[in-house]
Amino acid sequence: MLGSEGSLNMCFLNKAGTLKQSIPLLTRSTGGRIRSNIALQNARWKQTQILYQSTVLNSLEETEDALVNDSQEQERRDRLQAAMSQNQTALELSQELYTSGLGDFLAVLDAELRFLVDAGA
Questions:
Q1: pLDDT recorded at residue 55
Q2: Is residue 6 helix, strand or coil?
Q3: Rg, C-alpha atoms of the chain
Q4: Counted domains in the chain
Q5: Structural domain boundaries enclosing 56
Q6: CA–CA separation, 44 and 29 (whole Å)
């Protein structure tokens, strides 16, 4: 039942069936504030959801980047290890050739240099 000020009223009837009391439940201004508050809370909820989604997506991106970087670093270490192994073999062979008189000392120095450069990288 609408009252004179545009409010929704609750009416009680006594045992005789006559109107006993009228209590305003919702006035137009109160209803507007409630609707505004609901809209505000819905907007905050949506904002929180978007922030959460953004955080999850950023975390996934950072994780993916870290995994790619780790994989690339492992490949680099493997290539470096292979190069060091090859340079170690080249150094040993050049030393054998030099000691047997079949190679010159410059080849030994070159092999040592390559081995040391890769070991320092």
A1: 97
A2: coil
A3: 42
A4: 1
A5: 8-120
A6: 22
Residues in Cβ contact with 105 at an 8 Å cutoff, skipping those fewer than 6 apart? 98
The single-letter DSSP state of residue 2 is: B
Closest CA to 25 of 5, 41, 45, 40: 5
Residue 2 belongs to some domain of the structure: no
Distances (CA, A) of 63 to 50, 70, 72, 95: 20, 10, 14, 47
- pLDDT bucket at 120, cuts 50 / 70 / 90: confident
In a domain, 1, yes or no: no
Do 97 and 107 contact (CB within 8 A), yes or no?
yes
Residue 3 falls within a domain, yes or no? Answer: no
Residues of 30-56 as b/e, b for ≥16 C-beta within 10 angstroms? eeeeeeeeeeeeeeeeeeeeeeeeeee
Q: Rounded to an integer, what distance in angstroms lies between the CA atom of residue 102 and that of residue 10?
A: 114
Please indicate, yes or no, if residue 114 is contained in any of the structural domains.
Answer: yes
